[in-house]
């Protein structure tokens, strides 16, 4: 029981050894992450089409929940860009206009997502996330980054443009371009330029001024806060609100509200698929960050426990006025680099955000939305990596097709179609590949006991026997291909008396393949050809032993291909046909 | 060009060598198949819920089309039981009552199916049929046989019972049981008993009377014709129609009518999925019969040309008042056994059926539907083979699950849900299996150069090195599993300095797996562990050579696992840690 408890509550493991030193490290990391997270939370809520305060709420209780249930020591959870975009798409498709209804849909989405993640965790279904291939994830993240950046341009320009695909967004932006608000463009463009400079030029400048690298890093991370402060002051001082600069406005001050998700079956039905995609994408993103950071300290994370940690975080978001959250890449790296040692750093960050929600919200009144849009654009452009296309192209056509389709469909048809199509396509392409296995005809490398492809190497062959090495497990999708290939090979060559199937790379033979082998045995027998197997693996042999196949097989099973060769060579010399053919 | 012509028109190949002897053999076979096919055609049309003459029409022009385009020498096409059941389900779901509309839907279904098959043939998509695994097909055929038999009981009992699932049929049969018509039951039960006796007892009786086996076979095949003649006479002589025995009634006499499918987009939309399932199931059934028969004469069939042959047959059915057809198992075996040598036998059979349609239809007026139902029941019960469940159970749980689900869902939710769920489930289970590959930790068998699983064999290991053999191609679905497994193994064992991945059974490394290997290399490096590969296959090596992975890898690539072992053993002696650990 204590062991089970420790599995589901990782806090019991690290909490019992918590020391003052660890607390100090965690506190320092928490301060830095808090500074980074305040503008991000507000910005991502804006991206999700939600009021700014929901971003703050999503950064408080979920962090406590993750600190209790999460298995990563340094993962920082909260609202992230891609999940915010997916939230916007999911809620946008409902066609709601009442802000209360939109907020209810957001907490419901977080709740369903939390339930899905908890369910997957308890049922140990974390492996399902593996069906998102790396090319699909990379393509999806890149395309999402482009979509997010495009969607934020309207805030920089101060125009009402909307859309869930690049085409819709582009058309809408062009149509509204003449309405561009100059004051907004100056604020937004200025913030964008400043943030790009902070990202590229500030750290070298600080270092050359003699600052310590650690300090330079912290100041660089505070760039967005500086932009927020400067542009807010500018709007207030120059009365830019009257000139059409959109501002965040009144943000309710105080503790996160208690909220309850809707349990309307119609709403659940509409949101379920979106919540599933958000859960899986969020989990994949989070786990890869967590694994990368854990490996650096020779630690391990438990993927199924991560599902529980993230599920608890999303349920926490749902009951405290938030929206779907997951582990973020940038903030987790910052947390790690700043020295966080336990999930307590996340709890301290939550306290920081809580203080902000209680104390700082009045100061956000004049914060221009253009500044938040600029922080988003700068953050997401680092996600865009079109070099994946070139890399995949060089590596294999199948991987390229998966990346290309995912990027194209995400940009052209939205996030949900894009990622679903990517998953289906990569599974389909994988099945297609394995349905046409590589089959090599082998000969003996002279003077050795090694066998190689007769098309690639100078090898010896026997005139009355053919050896085929099958480079794939045999299952229903390739069983008929194997049969066709073998029959094609032997039908036109009347000298063949023996066929050896070299099974060294056959890791599995399913029932369809077994039946195909049985049929093949009969068909070859009808043609006067004896079928042998060589180098059958233990687990495959165990399974074949449960059937009549081995008893019915016309030929033998050889432990090694060389043994098969020696046996066939002796047979060839004994039988007149073999000698005549030579 | 002539070569291409010959590929798409197999008739040009066998037609040019057609002799009088071949014609004689084909004619004999055609007579026997015609006798068998007349009652079958009528019966299957009844099963499909169509007028009896549509069964005859489906057995004329489609046979000519197959003779021209088909690649099998002995396949006999026409209406078959399972496809007729699927036709009934497809048309039943439209909720039509007007007979003209039902007939139009049937020819449209044949046309769409023909177009799908032709399209798959021209695009060489025959391999798609391989995704129907043997357990799914076997389960589907067995469940269909049970459904068909249950659906025909109403004709034997003379009651109006309907339904597309076993539950619906059973409830309906029980509800109507009190209405059983005694005269119908006597005719139907008598025909059933007679046909079972013909199948089981007639041939031995004839043989013991001194008949030659060939003649005994022919007489046995004529059993259904005898049942038709006897029961038709009985109805006519005793006026059983007045006693409530349902009869076929007026069947139009003459050549098949010219018909045109509907091109209504709404109807195509409703029928498309059904047509696709009918095409694929029909193709799979047909190809397996054709392959079995071709192999007996060391002939080959061309699966993609079979698609064209069956597609042309279905289009032919659509323009001549028929409904979906495919190659039938029983009649093809009869055709083969009766000595058919070329597809011309099919054309002669078509002429026989044509004569029947022109001359015999008036004689069918008093044919009782119960007799046709009896011929169907006897025919389909040979399809039912529940031993597949036991066989699959013994072989593997995954195959058992696929059979069980297919049978259960086909019986419980109908043919379309059953077969679709079977396909999806077998793909899902296959992906699940390959997502958790077998990974064996290896050691050296003392005194040899062979390596075996340390859990199964007494082997030598090195204290500072671990060798893991991966028994699966590496792709996105199992990349993370591999990473987890390896990190799990090395994280808790601080003595490990070297990890060798034995790649002999790795037939592919996709881009996701490549990135996982890259990450693994970095993570292991961070832990102070060197990663090596051994026995990497040519095609995998070719692909890895296009990347930076091999250059970045901390360790080496060994041609053989023994070479890796020798190198590691020397290293172990050189480095103090290795010695200390020993």
TrEMBL record, chains A, B:
Subcellular location: Membrane
Major location category of this protein: membrane
SUPFAM superfamilies linked to this entry: SpoIIaa-like (SSF52091)
Span of domain STAS: 455-568
InterPro entries hit by this protein: SLC26A/SulP_dom, SLC26A/SulP_fam, STAS_dom, STAS_dom_sf
Record NCBIfam families: sulP (TIGR00815)
Descriptive protein name: Sulfate permease
Lineage: Bacteria, Pseudomonadati, Pseudomonadota, Alphaproteobacteria, Rhodobacterales
Gene: sulP
């Amino acid at each position: 029981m204590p062991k089970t408890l420790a599995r589901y509550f990782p806090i019991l493991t690290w909490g019992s050894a918590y020391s003052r030193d660890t607390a100090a490290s965690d506190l320092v990391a928490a301060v830095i992450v808090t500074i980074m997270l305040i503008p991000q939370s507000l910005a991502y809520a804006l991206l999700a089409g939600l009021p700014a305060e929901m971003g703050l709420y999503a950064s408080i209780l979920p962090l406590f929940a993750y600190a209790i249930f999460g298995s990563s020591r340094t993962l920082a959870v909260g609202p992230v860009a891609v999940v915010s975009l997916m939230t916007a798409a999911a809620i946008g498709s409902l066609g709601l206009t009442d802000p209360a209804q939109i907020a209810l849909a957001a907490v419901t989405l977080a709740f369903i997502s939390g339930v899905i993640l908890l369910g997957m965790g308890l049922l140990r279904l974390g492996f399902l996330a593996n069906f998102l291939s790396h090319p699909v994830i990379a393509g999806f993240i890149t395309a999402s980054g482009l979509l997010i950046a495009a969607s934020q341009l309207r805030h920089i320009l101060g125009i009402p443009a909307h859309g869930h695909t690049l085409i819709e967004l582009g058309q809408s932006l062009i149509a509204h371009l003449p309405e561009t608000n100059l004051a907004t463009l100056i604020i937004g463009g200025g913030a964008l330029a400043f943030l790009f400079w902070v990202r590229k030029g500030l750290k070298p400048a600080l270092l050359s001024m003699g600052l310590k690298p650690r300090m330079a890093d912290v100041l660089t991370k505070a760039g967005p806060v500086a932009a927020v402060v400067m542009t807010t002051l500018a709007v207030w001082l120059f009365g830019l609100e009257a000139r059409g600069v959109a501002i965040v406005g009144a943000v309710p001050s105080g503790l996160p509200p208690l909220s309850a998700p809707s349990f309307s079956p119609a709403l659940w039905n509409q949101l379920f698929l979106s919540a599933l995609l958000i859960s899986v994408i969020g989990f994949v993103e989070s786990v890869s960050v967590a694994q990368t950071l854990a490996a650096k300290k020779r630690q391990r994370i438990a993927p199924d426990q991560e599902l529980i940690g993230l599920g608890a975080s999303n349920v926490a978001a749902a009951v405290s006025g938030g929206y779907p959250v997951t582990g973020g890449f940038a903030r987790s790296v910052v947390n790690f680099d700043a020295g966080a040692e336990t999930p307590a750093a996340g709890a301290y960050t939550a306290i920081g955000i809580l203080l902000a929600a209680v104390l700082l919200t009045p100061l956000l009144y004049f914060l221009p939305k253009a500044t938040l849009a600029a922080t988003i654009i700068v953050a997401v452009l680092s996600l865009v990596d079109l070099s994946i296309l070139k890399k995949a192209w060089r590596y294999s056509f199948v991987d390229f097709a998966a990346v290309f389709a995912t990027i194209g469909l995400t940009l052209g048809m939205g996030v949900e179609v894009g990622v679903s199509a990517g998953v289906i396509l990569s599974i389909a392409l994988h099945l297609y590949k394995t349905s046409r296995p590589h089959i090599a005809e082998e000969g003996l490398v002279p003077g050795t006991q090694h066998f190689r492809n007769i098309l690639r190497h100078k090898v010896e062959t026997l005139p009355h026997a053919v050896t085929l090495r099958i480079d794939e497990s045999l299952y229903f999708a390739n069983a008929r291909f194997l049969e066709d290939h073998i029959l094609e090979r032997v039908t036109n060559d009347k000298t063949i008396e023996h066929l050896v199937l070299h099974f060294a790379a056959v890791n599995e033979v399913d029932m369809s393949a077994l039946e195909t082998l049985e049929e093949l045995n009969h068909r070859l027998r009808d043609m006067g050809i004896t079928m042998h197997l060589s180098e059958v693996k233990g687990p495959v042999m165990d399974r074949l032993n449960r059937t009549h196949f081995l008893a019915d097989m016309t030929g033998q099973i050889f432990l090694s291909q060389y043994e098969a060769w020696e046996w066939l060579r002796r047979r060839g010399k004994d039988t007149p046909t073999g000698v005549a053919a030579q």
